[in-house]
Amino acid sequence: MLTFLRTEKTRIQAWGGFRKALYAVTVALIAAYIFTLFSFSGRGGWNYVNLGVGAAMVLSIVAYELLYGEIRLDEYALIAVAFCLLTILSTLMAGRIFSLPKSLYFQAAFGIALYQFAKERENFKWTIASIAIGGLAFAVYFIVHYRAEFLALRFFGQDGRLGGFFDNENNVGRDFVILILVALYLIIWKKQWYMILYALVMAVLLVSTGSISNIVSLAAVIILSAFFAVKGRKKLIVLGITAGVAVAFAALLQLPAMSYFNKRIYGMFAAFFGLSGGDNSFIERFELSRDAILFFLKSPMFGNGYGYVSYQSIDGLFAHNNFTEIMAAFGIIGLLVYELLMILPLIRLRKEKSSLSRLVLALVLYLFIFQMFLVTFYQKIDHIVFGLAFAFVSKGYYGGLYLSFKGKRVSFGFRVNKDSEGLKRLGEKVKPCPLPLETDKFKID
Question: For each successive 10 residues of the chain (445 residues), what is the average pLDDT?
Fold first, then answer.
């Protein structure tokens, strides 16, 4: 981190005063956006604070990139806009156009804007730092708000789940998972040992939300990331450590303070295997996902419009599964387009060897895995991660529109990325296979 800051100081000192100021404002607004995203976006009325800060962030990024970089609309913008249009089309066909969530379109725009800034590697690192700082400010706010519960250790148990003041507890838990993954990257790959305290605080706050789905998803991401990061026999070590941690966690669940988690996890297994004492929430989610699949079969191509599962269910509930919810609402086409926002970066990340790629891989894997537990396609933090993921692998873009005022001259048009490995593979000529040698056949008596 200190090496990065020294390098950045040398780079930024060469800039003019206005550029320095605009850059500082942009980085600060990204941190402020993350803070308000976590703190206010899930609260009625206060969500406009987050939207206002987001709008200021977008304007600052656009101004900076137009003057000193470029605005580029490539396959990320194409996929994000295509999904948004599909949601409108499906819901319009169903005659319920006014039920669409406006937050989806705002967040897609914010993600595309953040991509413009983060597509340069130095800016990407500053963006990660801004997320960590904004997340820390939220953690302080969270602890101050729930100070009585923390002082009395009253954050275990159904009545003690924290986070509902800010948003649904599972959504708040997702924020802490993102921050934990950022901290683990800095600890493991950058040897920033002071971030251990940061990670521990975020882990405690995650547990305080009582979000089993987030804890399970985080554990799965850590295991998979470690498994992909090592080679050979080291993979066996990862599996051994995983087994040891699982045994230790099972023992930890026996403590009285962990009774809530013990009951919930046992209830999930009981419900899955048809035993008595099944978890009601798990059963309800399973039934809603099953209904969503049946609704999908009614209109498999374009779905039945936004919120169809909620529209049809007695209690007005969503499917609690992003895959089945999108299938029911927007059909198989909508599902395929949305999943591209994660699959395409994952494909490109296969060949990335830098330590920073491990963080991006973990973030995208987390979003992909967590889809099994909640409807996430309109969640705000997801589109920020999409923007970061595409920004990190942006050197592989195929082509796109660009606009720049850099150097006091207007440049715009369409550019094909000749360095894209995908385009190179498409342009490769297939060498014809050599014909087998013609030989005479002799019969020996």
Answer: 70 89 96 96 91 96 95 94 94 79 88 96 94 97 92 64 91 96 93 94 93 91 84 80 79 70 66 61 75 89 87 75 92 95 92 88 95 90 95 88 89 85 63 52 47
- Note the pLDDT of residue 313: 75
Q: Which residue has the tokens 């026999």?
A: 233
Which sign does the torsion angle of CA 136, 163, 245, 128 carry?
negative
Q: Burial-class residue 284 by CB neighbours within 10 Å (0-12, 13-18, 19+).
A: middle
CA–CA distance from 371 to each of 41, 161, 300, 339, 379 (Å)? 20, 22, 20, 10, 11
Task: Put residue 438 in one of left, alpha, beta given phi > 0 → left and psi -120 to 50 → alpha.
Answer: beta
Q: Provide the terminal-to-terminal Cα distance of the chain, rounded to the nearest Å.
A: 82
**Helix, strand, coil percentages, rounded to 5, for the chain:** 70, 5, 25
Element (H, E) at 118: helix 102-118
CB-CB contact of 221 with 36 (8 Å):
no
Best CA proximity match to 126, nearest among 222, 8, 265, 46: 8
Tokens 């048009």 identify what position? Answer: 413
What pLDDT score was predicted for residue 444?
Answer: 47
Helix (H, G, I), strand (E, B), or coil: what is residue 73? strand
| Total count of residues recorded for the chain | 445
Query: Residue 439: what pLDDT?
Result: 46
350-365 exposure pattern, b = at least 16 Cβ within 10 A, e = fewer: eebeeebbbbbbbbbb
Residue whose structure tokens are 């056949």? 441
> Helix 47-68 to helix 17-39 angle, to the nearest 10 degrees?
150
d(CA 384, CA 110): 7
Taking the C-alpha atoms of residue 180 and residue 178, their distance in angstroms, rounded to an integer, is 6
Q: State the sign of the Cα–Cα–Cα–Cα dihedral 128, 130, 136, 142.
A: negative
- Return the pLDDT at 61: 97
State whether residue 80 is helix, strand or coil: helix
**Residue 274 to residues 180, 269, 286, 321, Cα–Cα distance (Å):** 35, 8, 12, 20
d(CA 212, CA 225): 20
For residue 153, give the nearest of 86, 204, 91 by alpha carbon.
Answer: 204
